[in-house]
Amino acid sequence: MDRLTFATVWLGGCSGCHMSFLDLDEWLVDLADMVEIVYSPIIDRKEYPENVAVCLIEGAVANEDNLEQVKLIRARTRLLISFGDCAVTGNVTAMRNPLRTAEPVLQRAYLDTANLRPRIPQARGIVPPLLDQVLPVHEVVPVDYFLPGCPPPADRIRTLLRDVIAGKGSLLSGENIRFG
Amino acid sequence: MPVKTLTIDGKPVSAVEGQTVLEAAQDAGISIPTLCHLDGVSDVGACRLCLVEVAGVSRLLPACVTKVTEEMEVRTESERLKRYRRMILELLFAERNHVCAVCVSNGRCELQNLAVAQGMDHVRFAYRFPPYEVDITHRMFGMDHNRCVLCSRCVRVCWFIEGAATKNVAGRGADARIITDLSQPWGESETCTSCGKCVQACPTGAKFHKGSTVAEMERDRSRLEYIVTAREKKQWIV
Q1: Which residue, among B82, B110, B125, B127, would best test binding to A if mutated, counting the most A CBs under 10 Å from its CB?
Q2: How confident is the model at residue B221, as a pLDDT?
Q3: Do A8 and A58 meet the contact criterion of CB atoms below 8 Å apart?
Q4: Residue A1 confidence class, pLDDT cut points 50, 70, 90
Q5: Which residues contact B165 (CB under 8 A, 6 or more apart)?
Q6: Do residues A69 and A11 make contact, with C-beta atoms less than 8 angstroms apart?
Q7: In what helix (H) or strand (E) does residue B178 lie, and over which residues does it extend?
Q8: Whether A146 and B122 lie within 8 Å, measured CB to CB
Q9: What's B84-233's CATH class?
Q10: pLDDT of residue B238 exceeding 70
């Protein structure tokens, strides 16, 4: 049987969802029999490929690079899954949104609290500028399934991946959709 | 006591005249989701989660403030109700800044539990991200307006159980907010008795004990029941 092409992506989040993914422990070996990981922070590939069957997307859309990436990923992916609370709700990444712009956050992090050479980093093409408002993934592109949790426990990830790989769609319900 | 007979989800139920549909359902062991309802204080129908269908009435009615009538036919479960309940929850989540992962009530929150029960795996409305403040001027308690759902349970326990009338609602619609006295910092209130009933009554993490951190805000609702029992039955028993 041909293995499904599978990707995981890390946008504006803490990588905790990916840590939880690694928590799948020996099931990762089973997963490797079912899917081929074609793009992920845990493999070495620079560009998101074409024709990805399933993609877990961690993190919210927080900067211009995320925004560009998420559109490219959507165009090249059959089933896009919002992976964790930041992707689903904005969560902690979006806690700066009530400040309305990115400016007060940069001011606080790089000027007010800096000891050495206080300066807001600006390097076009290298450091992506922050968006004024952080957005959950589905407010930017259509999302097929939602996998909430901060982070989603490994069992929850396995339940969803099993269903999706088996072509059943997502049947998450009850405690498996709890935020936080 | 005049008795009314009605059906709830096809089940024949008898209720005392003056009882609400919610009370009749609870007595019959039928559960209806609620958020602004709190046993022992008067109902206001603020959250609309307890909406039910009544035969012959085209609009949905809130069970907590709808009185039973003779031969009433009530339905508490339908696709339409499911749709509305989920929509109400999504609007509540989108209205303020509910970040479960960093909330004192994570894992013990009535809003979070309702989202689980109603199958809300994401919010389809754009989040508003309004700027709200946290009032930690009180010696023992804090109020985080970001997490408030305007159920007014804190206001009602303050007025009708404690009798202090410290808490109130100011403003209208989504801009409404819970205030202390004449909209002043909680710590400067001259009427607050620091009884903590408002903190016990809060369904989310909006009102909390100072010093509690993520997921630590455990409430002891029996403290409220104790006072309600004392008031209604004149018995000081736990």
Answers
A1: B127
A2: 80
A3: yes
A4: low
A5: B158, B159, B191
A6: yes
A7: strand B177-180
A8: yes
A9: alpha beta
A10: no
User: What is B3-77's CATH number?
Assistant: 3.10.20.740
| Closest partner CB to A97 (pick from B101, B120, B129) | B129
The full set of domain ranges for chain B reads: 3-77, 84-233
For B68-126, write each residue's pLDDT tens digit: 999 999 999 999 999 999 999 999 999 999 999 999 999 999 999 999 999 999 999 99
Task: Report which DSSP code applies to B20.
Answer: B
For the four alpha carbons of A43, A44, A45 and A46, in that order, the dihedral sign comes to positive
- Count of structural domains, chain A: 1
Interface test with A, best of B102, B121, B123 (most A CBs within 10 A): B121
Whether A8 and A21 have beta carbons less than 8 Å apart is answered as yes
The residue with tokens 């007025």 is B159
Amino acid at A56: L
Say whether the peptide bond before residue A129 is cis (omega within 30 degrees of 0): no
Q: How far is CA A140 from the centre of its chain?
A: 13
Q: For chain B, what's the residue count?
A: 238
Look at B121 and A138 and tell me if their CB atoms are within 8 Å: no
Per-residue pLDDT tens digits for B161-172: 999 999 999 999
